TrEMBL record:
Residues 64-191 form the YknX-like barrel-sandwich hybrid domain. Gene3D superfamilies: 2.40.50.100, Helix hairpin bin. One of its GO terms (molecular function) is efflux transmembrane transporter activity. PANTHER family: HLYD FAMILY OF SECRETION PROTEINS, MULTIDRUG RESISTANCE PROTEIN MDTA. It holds the Pfam family BSH_YknX. This is ABC-type export system, membrane fusion protein. InterPro entries: BSH_YknX-like. GO terms for cellular component: efflux pump complex. It comes from Chlorobaculum tepidum (strain ATCC 49652 / DSM 12025 / NBRC 103806 / TLS).
Length: 314
């Protein structure tokens, strides 16, 4: 009986091992990719990472920083809003500076009154001098004349201080320098901001208080070509490029705009890391026409292939 039991256990163990080996050998069918990866449409195209941005004649998006520090009192705009040049964007608490400006204005009135008094005193002494030089000493007349000059200088200084205080007061309201679109607001009412910008609690760094793009909502794409591939770039008049939108199968033709002729250290576009690395890249800017049925935003990452027009696969 005992031998039969051992034989039964051994047979069960063998069958269990064979079954486990069979099922472990089976591999689940892999899921198809969510979208087709970008493919090279050129015979010898150059690949580059790209980032969509607001189209500008030079530079990138317009980053706005305050020239003074303070607590945000009011925000007049919202993301996506079209604004005109001179339109207020954001106001800081200016109570202290407003008091300083009023004090400077009052100083002008004091200086004007003082000047009027010394001028009247000088006029009396001068009139007396003209009637009889012996009635007023020369020292008294010179002292009065000096008091008039000092009063004029004090008044001029008070006016300059008031103009400076009023100009500084105007900096507590941020305004749009040009027509454009508000792309991002990186602060909120009650937050403290400075000339460094606003503190981002997620990244632990300072960011522009407001980011603006152009008024027409036109977009361009900036790509970064590795320095070892620069010599393979076609001439601008022969350059052709294709942009692939991630998550779709769409490919958008690009038009060369300009180089930024300064090879800089590569940064990680997805996290904007700025530590120095050995890899350096050349920025190349392209423009494109956005398809009507496609939604694109500044900051969106794309894949770009650059090739020659003659080498393009039809």
């Amino acid at each position: 009986m005992r031998n039969k039991l051992l034989i039964g256990i051994a047979i069960f163990g063998i069958l269990l091992g064979l079954g486990a080996a069979f099922f472990m050998k089976l591999r689940p069918k892999s899921e198809p990719p969510a979208f087709t990866p970008a493919s090279n449409p050129y015979r010898s195209g150059i690949y580059a990472n790209g980032i969509i941005e607001s189209a500008q004649k030079n530079g990138t998006n317009v980053n706005i920083y305050p020239e003074v520090s303070g607590t945000v009192l009011k925000i007049f705009v919202h993301e996506g809003q079209q604004v005109k040049a001179g339109e207020p964007l954001l106001a800081l608490d200016d109570a202290v500076q407003r008091s300083t400006t009023e004090s400077a204005k009052a100083s002008i009135a004091v200086a004007e009154a003082t000047l009027a008094n010394v001028q009247a005193q000088y006029a009396k002494l001068k009139a007396s001098w003209n009637l009889d030089p012996r009635s007023v000493s020369k020292d008294a007349l010179d002292t009065a004349a000096n008091a008039v000059r000092a009063g004029k200088a004090s008044l001029e200084l008070a006016r300059k201080q008031y103009d400076a205080a009023r100009a500084l007061l105007g900096k507590y309201t941020l305004t749009a320098r040009e027509d454009g679109t508000v792309l991002a607001i990186n602060t909120s009412v009650g937050s403290y901001i400075s000339s460094q910008g606003g503190y981002n609690s997620y990244t632990g760094g300072y960011v522009p208080v407001i980011v603006m793009g152009n008024a027409e909502n036109a977009l361009q794409v900036r790509c970064y070509v590795d320095e070892i591939l620069i010599q393979r770039l076609p001439k601008p008049d022969r350059m052709s490029a294709i942009m692939s939108i991630r998550g779709t199968t769409l490919k958008i033709p690009l038009t060369f705009e300009r180089f930024e002729p300064n090879v800089t250290p590569k940064i990680e576009l997805s996290s904007q890391r700025t530590e120095r690395v050995d890899v350096r890249v050349l920025p190349v800017i392209f423009s494109f026409k956005k398809p009507a049925n496609l939604t694109l935003y500044p900051g969106q990452l794309v894949d770009i292939y650059i090739g020659e027009q003659a080498a393009k696969n039809q």
